[in-house]
Amino acid sequence: MKHPFTARQGETLAFIHRFSVKHGVSPSFGEIASHFGTSTPSVNGMIKMLERRGLLSRVPGMARSLKVLVPPSLLPDSEFGPRAARPLRPSIELPETASRVEAAIAAAMSVMAVFLEDRDSAAAARLTARAAKALETALVGHGLSRGEALEASRRVAADAQFIAVHARAERIRRSP
Question: What is the CATH architecture assignment of 7-74?
Answer without folding.
Answer: Orthogonal Bundle (1.10)
